[in-house]
Amino acid sequence: MTSEFSLRDEELTPHRVRATLRAHCWTWKSTGACVGMLGGVIAPLLGLALSFLASFIGDWHGFHVRREGAVLLFLTIPLLIFGAHCLDLLDKEVSAEESRLRQRNK
Length: 106
Fold this sequence. Notes:
By secondary structure, this protein is mainly α. The protein has one domain (27-105). It has five helices and no strands.
């Protein structure tokens, strides 16, 4: 036997949690922040590994491993800057939503 309960949305989550969930759903800002930050961490590691590998094998079947490693190393800073910018945009969005909720509750 199953039973079903019906609750209003206000009873489940407080206003601040709902505002945060609304602000942090998968938008281009949150996706950009994830891609930028994860890419900024993974790119230098992969770039170092490729550069290290290239010092032993050189060009491998037409792939310029050293060049690709250098490109990944140079992409680290722009990816981190892009991720930080997207995080700032998310933070501004959350701040605006919280201030709107505070004004509505007054």
